[in-house]
Amino acid sequence: MKRNPLKPLLFSILLILLGITSKAQVSKDPNVLLGLKKPWASNELIEPSALAADLKNNSTATPLIFNIGAVENIKGARHIGAASNAENLEKLKNTVKDLPQNTAIVIYCGCCPFSKCPNVSPAYLELKKLGFSNVKVLDLATNLKTDWIDKGYPLGK
Fold first, then answer.
1. DSSP H or E stretch at residue 145
2. Which of 38-77 are b and which e, b meaning 16 or more Cβ less than 10 Å from the residue's Cβ?
3. Per-residue pLDDT reduced to its tens digit, 122-134
4. Per-residue pLDDT tens for 53-93?
């Protein structure tokens, strides 16, 4: 009887694929569990320099700013606390409940690299679920210190 040389190769590929799938299923990252890497669109990001310019100019277009992490407050921000915590997510909901759904809102965390943040996605998704249509995420790629404080942008007191 002749052995098929492809069987061991196909079996190995199958085992590798099963291993990749099982690792993804046990991920603790809420974005992975929800099947989302970034639930916001690129046009829903705001650069730190743009927000800082609005704050510096005391622009009438300055949005409501919510600190949904555990870092210092940007000038004018309302501190909610880490949105990965259910109590703080509830606090965010209560804070915005009476606002018009087209209110300009910026959320930020800045505790860690943006791609690993456990707080931004839950807050963003909750605001969208509540019907808010003008939500932006502050693009703090590294963290608040590097992308805001070290650049001399305004902090709250």
1. helix 144-147
2. ebbeeeeebebeebbebbeeeeeebbbbbbbbebebbebb
3. 999 999 999 999 9
4. 999 888 677 899 999 999 999 999 999 999 999 999 999 99
Tokens of 32: 């992975």
Buried b (16+ CB within 10 A) or exposed e, 14-28: eeeeeeeeeeeeeee
Q: What is the pTM of this model?
A: 0.75
AA letter at 117: C
What six digits make up the tokens of 65?
Answer: 């700013």
Half-sphere exposure in the Cβ direction for 60 (13 Å, CA): 0
Asked if 88 and 80 touch (Cβ cutoff 8 Å), the reply is: yes
State the first-to-last Cα distance of the chain, in angstroms, to the nearest integer.
Answer: 81
Q: Which two tokens stand for residue 4?
A: 């098929």
As a whole number of angstroms, the distance between CA 29 and CA 124 comes to 15
Q: What is the DSSP string of 69-129?
A: SSSPPBTTPEE---TTSHHHHHHHHHHHTTS-TT--EEEE--SS-GGG-SSHHHHHHHHHH
